[in-house]
From TrEMBL:
Keywords tagged on the record: Cell membrane, Membrane, Transmembrane, Transmembrane helix, Transport
Biological process terms in GO annotation: transmembrane transport
Places the protein is found: Cell membrane
UniProt superkingdom: Bacteria
Segments traversing the membrane: 58-82, 94-117, 137-154, 202-224, 244-270
Species name: Lacticaseibacillus nasuensis JCM 17158
GO cellular component, one term: plasma membrane
Ranges where the ABC transmembrane type-1 domain occurs: 59-270
Protein name (Swiss-Prot/TrEMBL): ABC transmembrane type-1 domain-containing protein
Membrane topology: Multi-pass membrane protein
Similarity remark: Belongs to the binding-protein-dependent transport system permease family.
Amino acid sequence: MIPSFVLLLIFFITPMVLTILFSFTNLSLTGANASALKFIGFQNFVTMFKDPQLAQSVWKTIIFVVFSAVIGQCFFGFLIAFMMRGKNRTFRRIVGLIIIAAWVTPEVVVGFCWVAFLGDNGTLNLLAHSLLGMKPVAWLYTFPMISIVIANIWRGTAFSMMVFQTALDDIPAEVEEAAVMDGASRWQLVTKITIPMVRGTIATNIMLVTLQTLGVFSLIYTMTGGGPGNATATLPVFMYKQAFVAYQLGYGTAISLVLLLIGALASLLYMRVLKVRL
């Protein structure tokens, strides 16, 4: 167990402890504070909660997580997995590979792909003009939040699909056959048998995709840079700008603790609402 504990200590416990410690300091990348580290107590947190940008970033983060992870990835992941049930192995492999290809692609590459698709001279505008005669639309400027939500759904749905596919395959066929023989409709079969039997998987998946989406940075920064203005400045983007653009690392680490707290509260809420022990 010693090697495992050492790795855990170096790559998990130590960074977490340092993050907490640095959030109470004036740590900076440049200037006098870079060479004169001082303990400043809760000053970073006082400044942060007085900053109106924090509340806006928290709200944008909640919108991004709810629509792209909780609703988008979970719903489409379950829908695709459910529709693939009972299909032959070749069909499932082909569809699975197509969807998983987006998930294994790095966020930066996915971001550039969507910029090329949604750009002023991008594929979407070319198709809209050719088929519908529409004028070019600056999608990333006019609908920035919708754009990053769709891009994140496109990239992350594969994970939920694989999780739900495994859970659905483990449901005994006899249970569903008995329900059908008792007169259950297709809708009743899904809502009364299938979903309750994978409730634990649903809770686990929602928590995982929520935590993953809370930390999404590269995709958003590549597509919009947090703009236009601060329209897509979620907490990771806000934290990055404060830590590495304004060079205030102490302030940035304080913001990261808020992000960690939101993730912990979301996990507890899911467990309470879905009544599942993990």
